[in-house]
Amino acid sequence: MIDLNSCSIDEILSKRRSLRRELSAATNLQELRIAVLGGSTTDELVNLLELLLLSSGFRPVFHQSEYCRFYEDAVVDPQALIDFKPDLVYIHTSCLNTQNVPPLNCAEADLPGYVQAETARYCQIWDSLESNVGCQLIQNNFEASPRAILGNMDSVSPGGMSRFLMQLNIAFAQETAKRPRVILQDVHGISARLGIRQWFDWNRYFMYKLLLTPEANLELARSLASIVRAMYGKSRKVLVLDLDNTLWGGVIGDDGIDKIQIGRETPVAEAYTAFQEYCLSLRNRGILLAVCSKNTEEIAKSGFAHPSSILKLDHFSCFKANWEPKHENLLAIAAELNLGVDSLVFVDDNPAERAIVEAQLPSVAVPNVGSEVSRFADFIEQGRYFEPLSISSEDLKRAALYAENSQRAVMEKKFANYGEYLDSLEMVAEIDTFKPVYLERIAQLTNKTNQFNLTTRRYTVAEMESALGGSGYLGLYGKLADRFGDNGLISVVLGRKDSDALHMDLWLMSCRVLKRDMEFAMLDAVVDRASRMGVKTIFGYFIPTKKNGMVSEFYSTLGFQPSNVLPSDLPEGSTAWKLDLAGYTGRNRHIKILEYSNA
Amino acid sequence: MPDLTPDEVLDELQPIFREVLGDEGLTVKRSSNALNTPNWDSLAHIDLIEMVERHFKVKFGLGELQDLKEVGDLVDLILEKKG
């Protein structure tokens, strides 16, 4: 199979139709309805996006607005869009679509008015789509102006197009940040990285109203595909690094700690230092780091004792240095971190190691980083593996949490029994009905949890909001803290009441709190609230996926009995379970429970 | 690609037309055009021109693009650009 990530546009264009046939043949693709509202011809973009999404496990169905009718189709006559029932609307516009451009003699004091008028036009689009369609929206900001009539002054003078677009981009950033359903695509940055001269294609524009080059459309499509992957919980979570000639120059086992190249003394050492800094910055935003190296463990670890090493041992959530094949170590890393292998990105300067991992574990991302350390970060960036939709404080804390988990694992060994260990953790949970302040995190957790997830149903913030308002729903979240730190919001359950029965549409938990009895605390809370709503029986369902095997017997562990009443819309292999509430006694023994308090 | 003949250019165009128009058995002639060739719509035309330009490493001018009527024109234009 061809790797679309590293393919040139020429290869893709010349094989697009055969690629499409080949990729469409895959089974288990998730249907995704995407409406594209364009300010120019968007067919080429849609064709490229289709390929990339097919290769990411989606089967996209597209609807495109009539040429340049993005505003009208969204605001004036949205019926076609409503009928299409999109999961996602992409509004693709360029600086050529701006209408409130200030005149050359614009005064400084008047510029904000033009910016505001243009932003207001887009707010109308977003408002209309939010209320009529209600799905996620992606809106791009603007590339730099293709012309600078005023030369360098174009970005200074209030009448310069460059200045106008800069201010407009700031206004877009501020406005979209307030709207949870609008994701801003940074075309300003994407086009700058490609280069404005390779962005616009004027002949195609005048011939077919197709504004962008195929290269530009491919960059846009790659960026969109990464946003979609992020929306559906498919962003990667771990950067796995080789050591020798990847994190430092030289071979630690041969050269020793004094001879490896790291620090500021030589250009090569500086380049390795810069790469370590890049890795650390990923870790600081919540991406986990792991080591996978062919080395003796003690010797491998000694490299991080180098006084100039930016990375220290405690920055790694998992450390595998041995002589086993790397693909086996990658499996072990994924298992230890309770993540899927498809969460891993593997970086190694050695092409032979990359090749074997690619062949043995196709779902691990293995960017072809070459052997030049100064380019490693570029290649990782180009893969867009770690696209976030929002930077929550949870993300920023996650890396620290996983480190705390390893500490817990070490402690665990010293106790006589597991209950004693759990008590020693001094766990405190906050369990309560959904609160608006947590909705975003609830939706985020719901959409990226794959393993401890009984039904793997995905919900947008909007859909969660409606569950929050509806009286027939019971939505509970759980947060868990212990003596090592706060794990944050880690469990979500959603039940639907039908006379005296409660049907659990959703039951999921983050794997970072596995084996902590949090599920019992959640069950106690569900039973407590459900009884107060007049519920007599709770029905639980398990829908099998490739990843959630670990919870196939979940309801049985909670004390549910198998039920033969299986809703007909559940796929084959699903199971149903029921629990009579009469005589229920609390199951949680080790966690202290609090309710929500915003004090 | 020095000294290409019109027939050679036409031969090299065949796989491009087959891919873009989605017809493995297609053979275009000099007289083929959008009206007498199935699937050759305006969107396919964009892809055809892009792939022809990239394959032969030529860039067509706006006026040239505008005057293209049939495959023969395209062959002649490529020869003119490469010559």
The major sheet of chain A is characterized as: 8 strands, mixed
Query: What is the CA-based Rg of chain A, rounded?
Result: 26 Å
Structural class of chain B: mainly alpha
Radius of gyration of chain B: 12 Å
What general form of chain B does the structure show? globular
* Percent helix of chain B: 55-70%
Description:
The complex is a heterodimer of chains A (599) and B (83). With 599 residues, chain A is of the alpha/beta class. Chain A is built from 21 helices and 17 strands. Chain A has helices spanning 9-24, 43-54, 70-76, 79-84, 111-132, 161-177, 187-194, 202-208, 214-231, 252-255, 267-284, 297-302, 326-336, 351-360, 373-383, 393-412, 418-424, 439-448, 461-469, 518-532, 554-557; strands at 30-38, 58-64, 88-92, 136-140, 182-185, 238-241, 288-294, 316-322, 344-347, 427-433, 473-482, 485-498, 501-509, 537-542, 561-563, 575-580, 591-594. Chain A has an 8-stranded mixed sheet, with helices on both faces. Chain A has a 5-stranded parallel sheet with strand order 2-1-3-4-5, sandwiched between helices. In chain A, strands 8-7-6-9 form a 4-stranded parallel sheet, with helices on both faces. In chain A, helix 1 (9-24) packs across helix 2 (43-54) and helix 3 packs across helix 5. Chain A is globular and about 75 Å long. The mean pLDDT of chain A is 91. Chain B has 83 residues and is mainly alpha-helical. Chain B has helices at residues 6-21, 42-56, 62-67, 71-82. In chain B, helix 1 packs across helix 2. The model of chain B has no long low-confidence stretch (mean pLDDT 93). Chains A and B meet through helix 1 and helix 8 of A and helix 1, helix 2 and helix 3 of B.
